[in-house]
What we know:
The protein is 33% helix and 23% strand. The chain is of the alpha+beta class and 431 residues long. It folds into three domains: 10-89 and 115-200 and 284-349, 3-Layer(bba) Sandwich (FAD/NAD(P)-binding domain), CATH 3.50.50; 202-283; 352-430, no CATH class. The strands form six sheets. It has a six-stranded mixed sheet with strand order 10-4-3-14-22-21, covered by helices on one side. A six-stranded mixed sheet has the order 8-7-17-18-19-16, with helices on both faces. Residues 19-25, 48-51, 62, 64-67, 154-155, 181-183, 185-186, 189, 204, 206, 245, 281, 283, 300-302, 305, 310-313, 315 line the site of flavin-adenine dinucleotide.
Amino acid sequence: MAENGVAMQLINGSRIVIVGGGPAGSFTALHLLRLAREMHLDLAVTILEVRDFNRPGPGGCNRCAGILSSTLVQNLKMLGLSLPPEVIQAELNTYVLHLSGRELPIRQPDPSQRIFSVYRGSGPRWGDPPFPHSFDGWLLHQAQLQGATVQRAQVRAISPGHRPIVATAHENLQADLVVLATGVNARAPLDPAWGYRPPHTEMMAQNEIPLPGGLSNNRVHIFFDYPPGLVFGALIPKGRYANISLLGHKLPATAINDFLEGQGLFSLFPGRVPLLCSCRPRVAVSPARGYYADRLVVVGDAAVTRLYKDGIGAAFQTAAAAARTAIQQGVSRQDFAAGYRPVCRRITLDNFYGRLLFRLWAVTRRSPILLDTCRQMILAEADLPPAAQSYTRIVWSMFTGDETYQRVFWLLFRHPAFHSLWQSLVKTWEA
Length: 431
Ligand SMILES: Cc1cc2nc3c(=O)[nH]c(=O)nc-3n(C[C@H](O)[C@H](O)[C@H](O)COP(=O)(O)OP(=O)(O)OC[C@H]3O[C@@H](n4cnc5c(N)ncnc54)[C@H](O)[C@@H]3O)c2cc1C
């Protein structure tokens, strides 16, 4: 709250430097500018972003599967935004789970909860024009329209001080508040004196292929079991293309080819599968430490994200909480501890439930009895009204990230079928 007796608060003319113009950086700028307007506060917000999102391929892309949860799509409205049609690549209404060679379609239980696929950059490296519109580029432009200054620059160092200094190759910017939004795929350029420790990460694997003929543009396909270490692999339609995203532990360098071969996907193409864009992005699997200090707050993946799902939604949440704290409380370490840390802790706690759910799912998949019961329950709900499709909603939410893991966990735990299922399983084991 106080620095040498002076309140650490944003005032008219305060300068905020946001390092990183991915979703977390742009969302923070949008929240800050909206709240500042409400409080008649005039802030100078600058975003420094190294990438050009108009470039196709990994160079212009914050490499991810690009599924936007319905919660995020709703939350955009809070900022007065709605996704333009040219950014949307596909509306997704079914997840097809491939389980022991059989398909189990999970249809969106509530059609009003729309989810979409987007490109983070401008499409695959070896794609053809016209190149798709970038979600990150659109969002950054919205921040610019709301009054943020956007500069294409790489930040080399952020040094602490009475007013922290953000250094690029060409200038040193003094800031009243620095927002670090560099994700987990670049080194955070923070001086060690800040005490920041980045999240633990794991390396994933992605590629892009032309959308195979016969594959619907509304259906995501989810695969399990192969290659070893895979938690799940997804084939996600995006207009003319489909993204392959593999999430797992210690995936080998050959993961994409192993996956295509092991899951029988080579047969989708008559000749060689045209692989259009390869990347090995990192995903955060733990929260960061020391993610706030006097006049510094870390947002998005670089602070904490949701396990495997809806990372862009988590970027929105952390950005909103950091901006609210900075404008309504102040920018000291104590202010962020009181206003920002609880939101990050809630996400961390939710991931604990997420881990339980994915473990439970792994057990279910390995047990033919459980798997068959699960299949029967989902198929039995197909013609029921959305409110009665409780089991479908549990599986849908788990794979789309559309509800918190905690909520999904308790929905499952309180589901009457869950108890009768375990009882019958225990009887089978005892027999
Ligand atoms: C395989 C995979 C699949 C995923 N699928 C999904 C999904 O379907 N849906 C979903 O919601 N989330 C998904 N995610 C998670 C999602 O990608 C992240 O949660 C999200 O991108 C976090 O946003 P961010 O702004 O914190 O970080 P980033 O998106 O990484 O953005 C950081 C930005 O900072 C810039 N930057 C970095 N260093 C500097 C520097 N020194 N100077 C200037 N600029 C800098 C970078 O260029 C970048 O633009 C997935 C992740 C992976 C790995």
